[in-house]
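Regression report. Comparing outputs from two consecutive submissions.

Submission 1:
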Amino acid sequence: MHHIDDSLGFILNHAGRRLTLLLALRYQPYDITTEQWSVLNRLYEQDGISQKELSRRAEKDQTNITRILDQLERKGLAERKANEADRRSFLAFITPKGRELNETLLPIENEVIRLVQDGMTEEEVALLRRLLKKLTHAAEEAIQEMGEQS
């Protein structure tokens, strides 16, 4: 008999939700959600990108990116400016306040990851990383094949 607790999809989803919750609890004092931080961190990595590119990098749809950028702008962490090359789009930028907050949050994220990796060897962590990337790649290929069929 197959138990859902043994399903790889369930295990991955559960682990992801637990990590997100742990990070959310650590970020609560800074009044930022993990979803907002993922977008802020992408802007920290590369500033002045289009919302479309930000959407791709943050793996969020355009509607969610717009909503998250609205929230980040209200908090003074990001801003949008007209794209001189394409008047129909905007470029997103991190503000100095957003950069400072991200530099505060990065070590917290690193600490959460260290905490959950406690008890794992470097080899196990490296293997887990490789296997998760392999699984993600296989899922992406399957999604593309389905897109080509429809």
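Submission 2:
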Amino acid sequence: MRITLPVTAEDRRIAWLASLALGLTLAENALPSPLPGVKPGLANIVTLVVLDRFGWRVAAWVSALRVVAGSILLGTFLSPGFVLSFVGALAALLALAATRPLPAKWFGPVTHSVVAAFAHLSGQLAVVYLWLIPHAGLVSLVPVLAGAALVFGTVNGLAATRLLQQLPLRPKPA
């Protein structure tokens, strides 16, 4: 017996957007990192644009697919790096869900990006402390990592804002 699942236009859109985010993730992993674990999070630009144009549910799918597919392609699936990435993405998505309904006057793509970057960092630090390195010395890394989250969150938010200004307000029907 052959089972066929219908593929919708939204499925295709999610796959296309996830592949775009995945491409940015793979490109970013080819770049040298100034500090271990500090990355600009370029794929988050895609997540921010998707959040604005298609909503939280589609953004969650794009983010989850990017994390899982990226870890498979990079050979880190189910490793500590995967867990850190997954928990960071989950924390960022939860923060975006909490801030999405807030007034757009104060919570646009830049604010969402910075909040998501700090949530990502917080989730990852929690996993590191609770699972990998239960040492109070981790607190000494917070200022540097928070500074990176602020800078990269702001830059990614500005890039997402620029993209959103150039994209049509409503997605084209598929």
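Expected: both submissions complete independently.
Actual: both completed, but the second showed a warning that disappeared on reload.
Relevant detail on submission 2: Residues 9 and 173 are 8 Å apart (CA to CA).
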